[in-house]
Amino acid sequence: MEFRRLGKSGLQVSVLSFGAWVTFSNQLDIPAALEIMAAAYDRGCNFFDNAEVYAHGQAETIMGAVLQKAGWRRDSYIVSSKVFGGALKDPSPLQRGLSRKHIYDAAYQAIERMQCDYLDLYFCHRPDPKVPMEEIVRTMTELIHRGDVLYWGTSEWSAQELMEAYAVARQYNLIPPTMEQPQYNMFHRYRFENEYERLYHVDTLGLGTTIWSPLASGLLTGKYNHGIPDESRVNLPGYEWLKEMFMSAEGQARLEKVKQLAEVAQELGTTMPKLALAWCIKNPNVSTVITGASKVSQVEENFSALDVVPLLTSEVMEKIEGILNNKHSKLIGAS
Ligand code: NDP
After folding, report:
1. Distance of CA 303 from the midpoint of ligand 1 (Å)
2. Cα within 13 Å of Cα(123), Cβ side
3. Cα–Cα distance measured from residue 272 to residue 274, given in angstroms and rounded to the nearest whole number
4. Which site in 9, 21, 312, 334 is 20 to 30 Å from 53, CA atoms measured?
5. What is the gyration radius of the CA atoms in the chain, in angstroms?
6. How far apart are CA 149 and CA 147, in angstroms?
7. 3 and 12 Cβ atoms separated by less than 8 Å
8. CB of 270 closer than 6 angstroms to any ligand 1 atom
9. Is the pTM of this model over 0.85?
10. Mutate-to-test residue for ligand 1 from 28, 62, 187, 212, highest number of ligand atoms within 8 A of CB
11. Percentage of the residues of the chain whose pLDDT score is greater than 90
């Protein structure tokens, strides 16, 4: 396993990590989640990602039970939660968003569900324009001062919102966000590569990143190249929107590209999931790639993606760029 600093913080996070979205509770119960998290942990994974909203708190409850059963030393792993959507099916305005009230309630509920004394990482799952930035930054700073959270961050905030949080932190001597959790994969790259570019610099935020959906929910595994397999995320109840996305004209165009990328993977003697993950790892601004898996065999495959990184020579990267044809030039990125 390779470990990377989470931005300019001192925290060393494994470059491949594991998250609970979709799978925990929908596909995996406690024994299955234990098996899959153990497969990741045994391969050097030291970060497990979660959120209050995943399966309405059930994903955190399952992860808490797994951590208890596994009995791993608390100083050997990092756990996260995210606040915004609320854990209840129909949250009231008090039970969601980024008010001081909900950030506190959600943090202590996550700690309880995950049966841990503190959260290593705590994310604002989305921006909340209804709450003043000072209230958010101050509340996160307080949680850190209380020892309930070690590092706070954001997910899918714009560069402008992140800079505003940074400015507020500097103005009031508060703690700025350490990390962002953006989507980043071969098909979704503009924000990560262009919009955030100056935020990675240590003179600004020195932003760490915990990237999500590195396989575009499975599209980049190649498993959808010849139709939809019965056992797959898009067939789960409640994920009809994903099936629609895959079946749309854009989804089908992406599928065509996956077919070409699969040939590159084959030429390299590897698999499509490993190629797609290695491509993410290759970007030095990625602190950790949060993987997802419904089966232990997927963890086994995904966690060997590090072996493929050295195969991504400039020639191979050029070939991949030729297929993707979606890289924004710096000039376009700045406009
Ligand atoms: P991926 O894009 O990597 O998709 C994972 C899914 O792809 C698996 O559950 C599995 O689905 C399929 N898969 C994975 N590996 C393989 C393989 N080797 N072969 C075949 N199929 C495979 O990641 P996720 O979308 O799950 O996101 C990862 C994590 O990121 C989440 O758990 C969560 O922690 C975080 N996240 C954060 C978000 C945010 O807003 N901050 C949003 C979304 C995710 P199946 O077998 O069921 O088809």
Report:
1. 13
2. 24
3. 5
4. 9
5. 19
6. 6
7. yes
8. no
9. yes
10. 212
11. 96
